[in-house]
Request: fold
Amino acid sequence: MWWILSVACLRSPEPTLDVVDDDILPVASIGEARDEIWSAFLASAPPAEDKAIHSVSWQEHTLRYTLQQRGARPEQGWPVYIALHGGGGAPAAVNDAQWASMQGYYLDSVEVGLYVAPRGISDTWNLHFNEASYALYDTLIEHLVRSEGADPDRIYLMGFSAGGDGVYQITPRMADRFAGAVMSAGHPNGVSAENLYNLPFLIQMGEQDDAYDRARVAAQQDAALDALQAAHPGGYVHDLFLHIGGLHNLHWSDRDPSDARYPVIADTAAWLEGEAGGERSVDANAVRWLGAHVRDPRPERIRWQPGLVAGTRGEDARWWYWVGVEDDPETWGERVVVSLDRSRNTVVIEESGPRLRLRLDESMVDLSVPLRVEVGGASWSVSLEPRRSVLERSLRVWGDPRRLFVVELVVDRATGVVPATSG
Reply:
């Protein structure tokens, strides 16, 4: 018996839904079943509480945050702007003051949306990316979608200084949760950008922010993204605003609500080599930059380093958009590269370890005919049976109405492709 436990399952008991596992769904009934399962999930949500400081919990850890609502809720749900504060390895009072500042830092730029300011869960240098942080942010996003009416395809992440450090670390581990990210005045601390293939990413930095060599490292990170984008066209949407004459938090702004434009280095690769680099002017407002992007929860191409994803998101598997690996490093491989060819009703696995999982639905493939799976020189055809139990398992993993899949397959390079066994 195979089952996936989600962060939600580990947090607290949830009312169970009356679902018959492996109940095959006629294609015509998928929409109705999806709506029924999601409606039951919403109905079982705890009642909203009217308080200044909100919180979510996972195991023994608690994440506190403030939530402010701006404008009228759009029909498709609220866009959400999650803003991470600065500080870091400092007394709690210092980090509390930084948190208080972030509660209004970008707020004037949010015309419509939920503005969410979490308090780092520790007072260490990595206060936004302790191992438990990833499960807590996953829990927070699920709660915002389920109880606050958030649009899961417009969840945005931004942060300044130590908050920027958090953006660098969270996004490659949770890119499938976000529609876009802005990192301001932080340091990547060696994290790879490879998992950002489907996540638009903006770096902002003062040209003279020399502490920890932040400015040069920002330009190096941008160069790494340039190289990834050149090697893999169609992904790695990104930019670097290296503000001319800017210090760590002086002489530039990523939150100016006016239409002011700011001078930034035009050629950051030249600047990195000691040349002037020229000048261009940009709208540096982080909220406006983010608002131009919408998440695709079923991208046609995935590039993924499974080892970088937080292991707390599931007990038996790690998932990335619609691709998963079992929680056994021996089966991962260095990276997973998978493409969906809708015109041929085919999934092409270019790179992976020995075993891989796929979750699909009627918007991705034609369920009425066999799916072709190509792996290296081999190919298999497999008949697809939509199952209500896969909808239920998808709900348990993500709590996301845009990721309620109906087919799950196991791809084994040695033995072929079979439907996943449900529990």
Notes: The chain is about 25% helix and 25% strand. The chain has two domains: 7-44+297-419, 54-291. The first helix runs from residue 7 to 11. Residues 1-21 have pLDDT under 50 and may be disordered.
